[in-house]
Design goal:
The chain is of the alpha+beta class. The protein folds into 4 domains: about 5-80, no CATH class; about 80-160, Trypsin-like serine proteases (Thrombin, subunit H), CATH 2.40.10; about 170-265, Beta Barrel (Thrombin, subunit H); about 280-380, PDZ domain (Pdz3 Domain, Roll), CATH 2.30.42.10. It contains 8 helices and 23 strands. The strands form 5 sheets. Strands 5-4-1-2-3-7-6 form a 7-stranded antiparallel beta sheet. Strand 8 and strand 9 (about 190-210) form a beta hairpin. The radius of gyration is 25 Å and the shape is elongated.
Length: about 400
């Protein structure tokens, strides 16, 4: 069936009273429903979306636009969870351990009990609890985390009939101006929905020092503390992102929010569930400094792929107990695989997208002369310790 825009639908409403507000297969999964037929409430894969035929929203006194909003909430709200955490902080003055509570949002991924959220929501937590739509709480364990992209997967042991998984959409199909819905638990107010639109696409967002997430979605839907980890949903009830940050000096909604795109989530989550982390290639260059000429290497891990390939870091000369470091002798990175790089984020972004055993060609300046060095990447396991806090 053809999907009508809301404007077109409003124009044709008087004559096409049998046209649905939205394509039923998009609102209710792959099950085609006859007009006025109410879907089974026990469909755990998509939840109970209700009857959204014209007679229904007319009977309820809703406009077509309101019917879309209600349809999205009715379908998705039971997929949203509240995440509460307890962390232990050491009071330096009294030398005592002080518990600190935090909260965020998440979304049910499947009926095995996997829950999607932001890494920063659960980072360093000693205890994590997940509360479902029916206010039942379950202890959660960390399955895997990707600090680089601020993504984490938890797991709870809850009955399958209480788990309503979200449906991941295609964030590549987003356009500026499309309507979006942000679901979450701002300020602990459970399963709240705010409505807005896509303000911009392909933003970059720094989540850790020198690490940025690309293709970030910018939205104007209101998100506040507690929304982190909650789903960003399109008008068809598909998750096209995960709310992760707000741009505000007072840590409250200022009309600018950011979400991690669903296509990135789709790539990362399977690895987190299978391996507990994202397996990336490691080059062994751990620190660089930005210069006018390029990225001067400040530190290379001993025995790393870069060192074995002959990449040069600072020259260290020992004179008795004193070490003299000549930083000017270090190679300067100007390109990776023929692509110029000027910042640490650009350099790390290319390396982060590659796998162990991939070969990286570094374009270097060595003593003022251009040099090409091929480096075979190893397995990057440096993030394992950071992601196993509880």
């Amino acid at each position: 069936m053809r999907i009508f825009s809301l404007c077109t639908f409003s124009t044709l409403l008087g004559t096409l009273v049998t046209v649905l507000v939205l394509e039923p297969s998009l609102i209710l999964g792959n099950t085609a429903l006859a007009q006025n037929q109410r879907p089974p409430i026990a469909a755990p894969a998509v939840g109970s979306a209700g009857d959204f035929s014209p007679s229904w929203y007319d009977r309820e006194g809703l406009t077509p636009d309101e019917a879309v909003n209600v349809a999205v909430y009715e379908r998705c709200n039971r997929s949203v969870v509240n995440i509460s955490t307890v962390s232990i902080r050491t009071d330096r003055f009294f030398l005592t351990e002080v518990p600190e509570e935090g909260s965020g949002s998440g979304a049910i991924l499947d009926q095995a009990g996997h829950v999607l959220t932001n890494f920063h929501v659960v980072q360093g937590a000693a205890q994590v609890n997940v509360t479902l739509y029916d206010e039942e709480s379950y202890a959660a364990k960390l399955v895997g985390a990707d600090p680089v992209n601020d993504i984490a997967v938890l797991k709870i042991d809850a009955p399958q009939d209480k788990l309503y998984p979200v449906v991941l959409g295609d964030s590549e199909r987003l356009r500026v101006g499309m309507k979006v819905f942000a679901l979450g638990n701002p300020f602990g107010l459970e399963r709240t929905m705010s409505i807005g639109s896509v303000s911009s696409l392909n933003r970059t967002l720094e989540v850790q020092r020198n690490w940025v997430i690309k293709s970030i979605i910018q939205i104007d839907a209101s998100i506040n503390p507690g929304n982190s980890g909650g789903p960003l949903i399109d008008a068809h009830g598909r998750v096209i992102g995960m709310n992760t940050a707000i741009a505000s000096r007072v840590a409250q909604s200022a009309g600018i929010g950011f979400a991690i795109p669903s296509n990135l989530i789709s790539r990362v989550v399977p690895e987190l569930i299978k391996y507990g982390r994202v397996i990336r290639g490691d080059i062994g260059i751990t620190h660089v400094t930005v210069t006018d000429a390029g990225l001067r290497i400040a530190r290379i891990a001993p025995g790393s792929p870069a060192e074995l390939a002959g990449v040069r870091g600072p020259k260290v000369t020992r004179r008795g107990p004193i070490s003299i470091i000549d930083r000017g002798a270090a190679d300067i990175i100007v390109a990776v695989n023929g692509q110029p790089v000027k910042t640490a984020a650009e350099f790390l972004g290319i390396i982060e997208s590659m796998k162990p055993k991939d070969i990286v060609r570094l374009g270097l300046l060595r003593e003022g002369k251009p040099v090409l060095v091929d480096v075979t990447l190893a397995d990057d396991s440096r993030l394992q310790e950071e992601t196993s806090k509880f």
